TrEMBL record:
Keyword annotations: Iron, Metal-binding, Oxidoreductase
Domain of life according to the entry: Bacteria
Biased composition (Basic and acidic residues): 77-88
Membership in a protein family: Belongs to the iron/ascorbate-dependent oxidoreductase family.
Gene3D superfamilies in the cross-refs: q2cbj1_9rhob like domain
Cited InterPro entries: BesD/HalB-like, Oxoglu/Fe-dep_dioxygenase_dom
Sections of the chain in a coiled coil: none
Residue span, Fe2OG dioxygenase domain: 136-248
Record-given protein name: Fe2OG dioxygenase domain-containing protein
Region Disordered: start-end pairs: 61-88
Pfam family, one: HalD
Length: 270
């Protein structure tokens, strides 16, 4: 599919960078992201493209990595024995997802078309306050399809070191599968371990924000410093979500430990 057939340009006129409509759209979305740490763009992808992406996910599902494991909120499967047992790095939570890595997704899948299209990348750069963004060059991380079947969930976690996270809801579950986040749980200068611990132990439920995610909605959020999770999925309809990773510099590849944890890839020796 052509990029113009994937992105809903009727609602999101992003091609003409000089147009007032585009400038107003980007300004509004940037303001909302800065204020709330997340912004949702409903119906960003056209229905035909969304259906094709879901079909690609279902076809590739037998090859997905079923990640059912205990991990901490830093995406590590091992804690730190030098720290107290209730330190956030030692609080292990159950996560169960089915991940299709970049190299398992067909090259002509609409999520890859969207990800690699310069007008989308430039729009995202302006929304998140960057002059320019680059595609991630990891074999697993640039674009992936995250699938949740009955009982699957994503535990509280931070998104590695990325300044922002971008996701696209392709198919919602019948029930459950709610996306929740706690904005500004930590900062670049303060890990805020006491507060992180209280969130992980369920001691401040009112601080969590539920982000509405309808099928076709693009979401940009500050997942690096905001804990977030997906509640257990219920029903027969598989929850399918596209996940996109852009970088501030060219030539970036992912953390091998994260790839081992999330995508089931073996850590290289040494």
């Amino acid at each position: 599919m052509r990029p113009e057939d994937v992105v809903n340009l009727d609602l999101y006129p992003i091609l003409d960078q000089a147009s007032p409509e585009r400038a107003e759209l980007v300004k509004r979305l940037k303001t909302e992201l800065d204020e709330k740490q997340y912004v949702s763009l409903p119906d960003f992808i056209r229905p035909e493209a969304r259906e094709r992406a879901v079909a690609d996910a279902k076809a590739a599902l037998p090859r997905a990595h079923h990640n059912s494991s205990q991990r901490n909120c830093y995406l590590q499967r091992k804690g730190d024995e030098t720290l107290p047992s209730d330190h956030p790095r030692n609080l292990m939570l159950e996560a169960s997802t089915r991940m299709l890595a970049y190299d398992q997704v067909p090259d002509d899948c609409p999520v890859k078309t969207l990800y690699h299209w310069e007008p989308v990348r430039q729009m995202v750069a302006e929304i998140v306050g960057e002059e320019k963004l680059y595609d991630n060059e990891d074999p697993c991380q640039p674009v992936n399809l995250l699938c949740y079947q009955t009982g699957d969930r994503s535990a509280w976690h931070f998104d590695s070191v990325n300044a922002f996270t971008m996701t696209l809801m392709l198919q919602a579950s019948e029930a459950g599968g709610d996306f929740e986040m706690v904005p500004n749980t930590r900062s670049d200068d303060d890990q805020n371990y006491d507060y992180v611990r209280s969130v992980l132990k369920g001691e401040c439920p009112d601080d969590a924000v539920s982000v509405a995610r309808s099928a076709g909605a693009l979401c940009i959020f500050r997942g690096c410093n905001s804990l977030h999770r997906v509640s257990p999925v219920e029903g027969d309809s598989m929850r399918v979500m596209g996940v996109f990773v852009y970088e501030r510099e060219p030539g970036i590849v992912g953390d091998p430990e994260v790839n081992a944890t999330v995508y089931g890839r073996e850590l290289s020796a040494g």
